[in-house]
Design a protein that fits this description.
Cytochrome Bc1 Complex, Chain A, domain 1; 18% strand; alpha+beta; Metalloenz_LuxS/M16; globular
């Protein structure tokens, strides 16, 4: 899990920064005994609560992998006691408030932001939907159908099938893979309201794993707001589970005769963010494959003499299972050459590190961190991720100082000490030509990748 909220929209906060009133962080406990971190942001007209509930639902065999996605959407849109289905969306829009329930393999996140004057009402609305959702059957059918259609469209794309094959190869036949891929169309058809109610009761409880509250509010206001949000929720317990993934290096080719182009992906594990180093990782991934001035972009364009682009990024299957990937589309005839070009480019990058002045590398991040300090949702999300990683209170507020003091030697040390070597990647190709990658394990269905 990347601890930085750089990809989030910069919303719900002021558009300026008063250097004399910087955010401060502290630990508190609500009157009902719930611990939380408070980031006080003087002068900000919004306040936010960001919580993370443990989410181990999918680890048990026999549970529908689509449950949490549909359940989270239905909680928000399907109405609650005193609130007709669909009303909360319009009411929040009128209030300039925002509520979200993103789902990952590890957590159900709850994010609520509103202007300080509307905060009590926004909390009351959110509490009703969390504690007493209506599970409206018409909205259930609508959300389920829309989600199923979107996934069916995604599954028809060769690129998506390649990513599915990667998950089969690395995760295997496991409930985690089923949740991440959602490649079983019957999962949507078989999903019931009873499944959603059982998931809701087990997941949305009075004991989030972590809570961060942000805004120009006092600890008394923050604690009262948190208790009001969690009022009426059941007691609960959760046991996070571990999984061993199979990253042994190999080459796999998914043969799809109707695919117009080939697609190539490299993937290898990285340390979890709780171990530190993800600031360096973000800078390095951007230098490796983050745009037209990146190593991969230039190497693939020059090495293959064609107008291809190749990207690099960071992702995770769970918080403990994080990875580096390099991916791009190309002509099937040049697939084998592309493997060599990308591998050689990566090997050179890992050995030498990024070119240029580190000040130029960190400048975009510095701007993002400076902006984040003005926005309650983004700053709260960053602090929540550091909380889940067990970093000290206010760690998200130290990012600028860490960035400004980061030496170039740390980037090279991170590359050579923690990034995979060039031969350590699982390589997945999707191609209309079954012979495009000599020596690869050739399959015709994503699920066959588990046997490669």
């Amino acid at each position: 899990m990347i601890r930085f909220a750089l990809a989030l929209p910069l919303v719900f906060g002021l558009s300026f920064c008063d250097s004399d009133q910087q955010p401060t962080a502290s630990d508190h406990t609500s009157p009902n005994g719930m611990p939380y971190r408070l980031i006080q942001m003087p002068g900000n007209e919004y306040a936010a609560i960001i919580a993370a509930w443990p989410h181990d639902w999918i680890w048990a065999e026999g549970r529908n992998p689509a449950t949490s996605y549909i359940g989270a959407q239905l909680i928000l849109a399907g109405g609650a006691e005193g609130y007709p289905a669909g009303e909360v969306v319009e009411r929040f829009a009128d209030m300039d408030a925002n509520g979200e329930l993103p789902v990952t393999a590890d957590h159900l996140y709850g994010m609520l932001a509103a202007k300080k004057g509307d905060w009590p009402e926004a909390i009351a609305i959110a509490n009703a939907h969390l504690a007493r959702p209506s599970f409206d059957p018409d909205w259930f059918a609508r959300i389920r159908t829309g989600f199923a259609q979107n996934m069916a469209e995604a599954q028809s794309q060769p690129t998506q099938q390649g990513f599915d094959a990667l998950r089969w190869a690395i995760i295997g036949d496991h409930p985690l893979r089923a949740m991440l891929s959602l490649d079983d169309a019957e999962a949507f058809a078989n999903l019931s309201l009873e499944d959603l109610r059982a998931w809701h009761s087990a997941t949305v409880t009075a004991q989030p794993e972590a809570v961060v509250i942000t805004g120009d509010i006092t600890p008394e206001q923050a604690g009262a707001g948190l208790d009001a949000l969690l009022a009426g929720l059941p007691e609960g317990e959760s046991q996070m589970r571990a999984i061993v993934l199979d990253y042994h290096p190999r080459q796999i080719l998914l043969h799809l005769p109707d695919s117009e182009d080939a697609h190539l992906t490299f993937i290898a594990p990285l340390p979890a963010t709780r171990l530190g180093g993800d600031l360096e990782d973000l800078i390095l991934a951007t230098a490796l494959g983050g745009g037209e001035d990146s190593v991969l972009f230039a190497s693939v364009r020059d090495g293959l003499r064609a107008s291809y682009s190749f990207n690099a990024g960071l992702g995770n299957y769970t918080r403990e299972n994080r990875f580096l990937f390099m991916t791009g589309a190309l002509e099937a005839a040049k697939l084998a050459d592309a493997v060599d070009v990308v591998r050689d480019a990566y090997a050179g990058f890992r050995d030498k590190g990024p070119d240029g002045d580190i000040k130029d590398r960190v400048a975009p991040l510095r701007e993002s961190f400076e902006q984040t300090r003005n926005y309650v949702m983004n700053q709260g999300h960053m602090e929540l991720e550091t909380t889940l990683d067990a970093f000290a209170t206010g760690h998200s507020l130290t990012m600028l100082e860490m960035l400004n003091s980061l030496p170039a030697t740390d980037l090279r040390n991170r590359l050579q000490g923690h990034w995979p070597e060039a031969q350590d990647f699982v390589i997945m190709a999707v191609s209309p030509d079954a012979d495009a990658l000599p020596g690869a394990c050739v399959i015709t269905r994503p699920e066959d990748a588990k046997d490669c």
